[in-house]
Amino acid sequence: MDITLKPYIDTTTTNLALHQKISQGIIDLITKGVLPRGQKLPSVNQMALDLGVHRLTVLRSLEELEAEGWIRKQEKRGAFVNEDLPVYRFKSPMAPLSGPLPEMDIPDLDIRPLKQDYSRLSFNDGYPDHRFMPHRELARAYSTVLREKTSKQLLLYYDLTGYAPLVNTLKEYLQNTRSINFEHRELLVTRGSTNGLYLAIKALLVPGNTVAMGEPGYHLMRETFLTCGMKVISLPVDEQGVVVDALEDRLKNQPIKMVYVTPHHHHPTAVSVPAERRLQLLALAEKYGFVILEDDYDFDFHYDRSPTLPIISLNPNAPVIYCGGFSKSLSPALRIGFLAAHPKVVDNACRWRKLIDRQGDTIQEAAFELMLKNGIVDKAIRKARRAYQLRRDHAYDLLNLKLPGLFEMKKPSGGLAFWAKVNPQVNYPELRKKALEKGLHLVAGDNYTLNRQAHTRLGFASMTEEETQEAVDILSDLIPV
Fold first, then answer.
1. Domain boundaries defined on the chain
2. What fold, for 18-81?
3. Spatial distance between the Cα atoms of 208 and 229, rounded to a whole number of angstroms
4. Residue 281 main-chain phi, psi, to 5 deg
5. What is the pLDDT of residues 5-32, one digit of tens each?
6. Single pTM value for the model
7. How far apart are the C-alpha atoms of 164 and 362, rounded to whole Å?
8. What is the pLDDT of residues 180-197, one digit of tens each?
9. DSSP code string of 236-282
10. What are the C-alpha distances in Å from 74 to residues 31, 41, 287, 303?
C-alpha cells in the first residue's frame, strides 16, 4: 500500500528542527495506526518531494527514527515501520483520574540529611558547571523586574501555580522543544524538578499505595516513596532501561498505582529507553490504570543525536505526570522546575504546595521568564552542551588510558555522568577517603544499588578538561598502574 505523507505532516508548526518535525509526524502516524506495523515508508526522494524538503533532511529524520526503534531499514528494500512495536492506539480525551484524593495529613518522616561536598575537583553524581550560568544576564533580569511598575504585585502573595507569564512562556517552550500538548493538561511552576516530583506523589498517592521503579534507580525517589508510606516494587534494568515485561508480570498479580521512570537517561545508568518500551509502558498504563511519573531531569544534554522526545509527547491524553527543570541545565541554585499533568492532578498538587511553602519564588520566576523569552536560556544551554560533549569524550578517553581496569563503563549518548562498575579488587570506600584528602570528591558507590554492588557515577560535566586531568592524576597516584 503506497502512502503519501504530505496530508499528515505539517512542517510549518512548532519551533522544532525540520527533521524533528518530520520524525514526530511519522511517530504520530505510527501511534495512531495510520502507518501500521510493517508498513513500507515512501522512498527518501519521494518523501523529500512530497514534503518540499531536501533529501538530506529526510535521511536525518529516518536515522533518528531508526535509532529510537520506530523503523527498520532493509538493504535495497527501503524503510519499514518496526514490526515488533506493540499495538497501541489513542483513546478519547483522558477522563478525570478516579480514586479518593489523599488526606491532608503530614507524616512524621525520618529523612537522611543531604551532605554536599564543595571540593574543587569532583566526579560527582552528574552536576552541571555553574560557570555556564548567565549570571550577569540574570542580575539584569532581576533589576528589570524590580524596576517595573508591576513589581508591587510580585512582592505580594501570588498564584499557587506560579508567575502567570512564566506559566504561559513555559507551556510554549515545552510545546516547541518537546512537543507537549496542553489541550488536556495544565502546568505548575515548581522549585526545581525534585519539588515537582514530591508534589506529584502527594497529589496522587496515599500511604499504602504500591509504586514501581527501576533497580538500580534514583535513590532519593525511592527514599521519598518509602517515607511517604508507599510500597516500592523494584523492576530490573538492562541496556535499554527499565524492563517493561517484568512490570507486566507484576501487574498481573497486584495493583500498582504509579510507575516512576527516567526514560531519557535512566538514573543512574544513563541509558535511553527505546520506542518499543515507551509504547509498551503507555499501553500497560491504560490497561491496568496506573499513572506514569516521568522525570526528565536532563533533557537538554544529548550529544550523539537530537534528544528523544518525552513519553508525555506521544499521546496528548495519556496518564502521564511530567516533571523537569533547569537546575541541571544551568545551575542547581536556580530552583525553576515544572510539573505538567491532568488539571485535577495540578490542582491537588497546588493544595499540597499551600501547606509546604505557599508559592514559588515569584521574583525569580519573573526574572527567569525574561531570560527564557529573550533566548538567553537557550543560548546558555547550547554553549554548555557543546562543552559537555567535549568533556565527556576527554574524560572517557583519559580514564581508560590512565586508569585501565579501575572502572568498567560505556560512553553514554547523553547525560552528565558515566555509570561505572568499580573493580572488585579495589577498596573503593578507602579510595574515596584518600582521594578526598587530596582534594578529589568521589560519589559513594552504595548510593545506587540495594544489593551494594560496587558501581558509581562519575560526573564529567562540572570540571574543565584541565581539572579532569588533575583529578585523574590524583587517582593514578593512588592506584599505580
1. 18-81, 134-374, 378-478
2. Arc Repressor Mutant, subunit A (1.10.10)
3. 6
4. -65, -45
5. 777 777 777 677 888 888 888 888 888 8
6. 0.82
7. 10
8. 999 889 999 999 899 999
9. EEETTEE-HHHHHHHHTTS--SEEEE--SS-TTT-PPPPHHHHHHHH
10. 22, 11, 33, 26
